[in-house]
Specification:
Helix content: over 70%
CATH topology: Farnesyl Diphosphate Synthase
Low-confidence stretches: 217-222
Number of domains: 1
Number of strands: 2
CATH class: Mainly Alpha
Largest sheet: 2 strands, antiparallel
Strand order of the largest sheet: 1-2
CATH superfamily: Farnesyl Diphosphate Synthase
CATH architecture: Orthogonal Bundle
Number of helices: 14
Length: 320
């Protein structure tokens, strides 16, 4: 499925130019790293949600572009820091900043991106937008720390899992939608509604990522990465709660002690599939998508609404 960008093609080009300006630095090393980061940008889903959410309720303006840039600056900063935390040498199929410039530089680059984002908003008096996004950054940190704490015991209840991904993954997407809508409506109720919409899409987005760990080989991606990293995802949590005690003990033993052994990881994946973990997670993902679209359909029918709906469909139909 293609990304539905036709309605905001021109706006995306303006955003990209402004984002490049936003990360530019007078320090040669930093500017070189920023050019590397910009050149290897991802799908830019979050800025798309900002722009379409804004366009849903008004005319895109300079505040909207700054909100989209702030979202991308914060997202990029968290990815750079995540690669240090996860000791990850690869990002989007290329060497990560951490792989090329190591710990100290990576941490400072992430800090620089956060500072640039703060100043972009403060220098232009975009206080409400900054407030919306700052809450998201707080939640992301809390979600990451909660996951680290709970993963040690490998005993996460489903409600805790949803608390983790609501904070860790969904908060930035929900803030992107709320901030975008705010920039063109200045209406708290509209922003709140789009925040709820974005949260549900963000949860579905994370569940889709969870599912890649079990069916990635069908599209040429490695499977079992989350298992190797001892991350408890929804298919695995469902399985641990629905198998016999002996199987559960063996699953936990493998995840803790044998998570690098290919045959052991494959056994875990097979058990998850047979127990219905993949089907259960898929069903949950579709429930959240349905709830997100219910909120979206409270807005008048329009080409912009259709594009947002198509973007939501892309989130769950994407192959990577």
């Amino acid at each position: 499925m293609q990304l539905p960008v036709d309605l905001i093609k021109n706006e995306l080009k303006i955003f990209e130019d402004r984002f490049k300006d936003a990360v530019r630095s007078q320090t040669p090393l930093l500017d070189r790293i920023m050019r590397y980061v910009v050149k290897r940008k991802g799908k830019q889903l979050r800025p798309m949600f900002v722009l379409l959410s804004a366009k849903l309720v008004g005319e895109i303006n300079d505040t909207t572009y700054r909100a989209a840039s702030l979202v991308e600056l914060l997202h990029t900063a968290t990815l750079v820091h995540d690669d240090v935390v996860d000791d990850s040498l690869e990002r989007r199929g290329f060497f990560s900043v951490y792989a090329l410039w190591k710990n100290k530089v990576s941490v400072l680059v992430g800090d620089y991106l956060l500072a640039k984002g703060l100043l972009l908003s403060l220098d232009n008096n975009d206080f409400r937008v900054l407030q919306i996004l700052s809450h998201a950054v707080r939640k992301m940190s809390e979600g990451e720390l909660l996951q680290i704490e709970k993963s040690r015991s490998l005993n996460i209840k489903e409600e805790v899992y949803f608390e983790i991904i609501r904070n860790k993954t969904a908060s930035l997407l929900s803030a992107a939608c709320a901030a975008g809508a705010w920039t063109t409506s200045n209406d708290e109720e509209v922003a709140k509604k789009m925040n709820a919409f974005g949260e549900k899409v963000g949860i579905a987005f994370q569940i889709k990522d969870d599912l890649f760990d079990y069916n990635g080989e069908k599209i040429g991606k490695p499977t079992g990465n989350d298992i190797k990293e001892k991350k408890l995802t929804l298919p695995l949590i469902f399985t641990l709660n629905n198998v016999e005690k002996e199987t559960r003990r063996r699953l936990i033993y493998i995840i803790k002690n044998k998570n690098k052994e290919k045959e052991m990881v494959k056994w875990v994946i097979d058990v998850v599939e047979k127990t219905g973990g993949i089907s259960y997670a898929t069903e949950k993902m579709n429930v959240y998508i349905g709830e997100a679209l219910e909120i979206l359909h409270q807005f008048p029918q329009s080409d912009v609404r259709n594009s947002l709906e198509n973007l939501v469909r892309f989130v769950i139909d994407r192959k990577y």
